[in-house]
Amino acid sequence: MNQTKKKKKAILEVTARLLRERLISDISMDEIAWLAHVSKVTIFKYYENKNKLMNLVIRKELDFMVENIQKIIATDADFHETFHQIYHFKIKQIRLMTDIFLQNMMKQYAANPSFFDEDTRQIQHLVYQELFRKGRAEGQISEDYTDEDLFLYVDIISEGMKSIPLEILIKHSKNLTEMFLNSLKKRE
C-alpha cells in the first residue's frame, strides 16, 4: 500500500473510531491528525473540510449496509423472509454502531439532508426496487402500488422516525415492520 493510501486509511479509521466515541462537535481536526500520525494539512488535502470527512465516514458505514442488504435480497429466500433478514441485519448494525455514532449520523442528516448525496440515495432506491420486485413477483406487494408510491411511503416513515428516540424505535421495530409488510398487499 502506498503512502497516500496508508494516510487516507489511517484518517478514516481514526475518524470512524472517534465518531463512535464522541459527538462531532467534540472532535477536532488536530486530534484526528495527531491520532492518524498525519498533518492537518494532509487531512484538508484529501477531505477538504471536517464536515466532508465526517460525512464520508458515515456514508462508508451506510455503503457497507447497502452492500449486505443487496446480498440478502439476492438469496432465494421469499419476500417476507428477505424483509425479516434485512430487518435483523439493520438492527444488528444499529446496535454495533453505538448511540453516539447514530446521534452523529442523524445530526449530519438533520443539518444537511443532501448529506445522503444523490448517488447514495439512488443506490438505496435500486436496492429496494429489487426487494419490491421480489415482493410483487410473489404477490406480496399489490401491483396497484408503484415504486414511486412505495418510496414515498418509506420516505414519509423515515422522516417521521427522525424525531423518535432510537431505543423506542428498536423496541417497536418488529411490530412496525409487520405493519409495513401487511400494508403492502391490496385488501380484497
From TrEMBL:
DNA-binding region coordinates: 28-47
Q: Which residues form a coiled coil?
A: none
Ranges where the HTH tetR-type domain occurs: 5-65
Keyword Magnesium appears in the UniProt entry: no
Which keywords does the record carry?
Answer: DNA-binding
What single Pfam family name could you report for this chain, choosing any that match? Answer: TetR_N
Under the heading PROSITE patterns, the entry gives: HTH_TETR_2 (PS50977)
Q: Which domain of life is it from?
A: Bacteria
Name this polypeptide is given:
TetR/AcrR family transcriptional regulator
Q: What is the lineage of its organism?
A: Bacteria, Bacillati, Bacillota, Bacilli, Lactobacillales
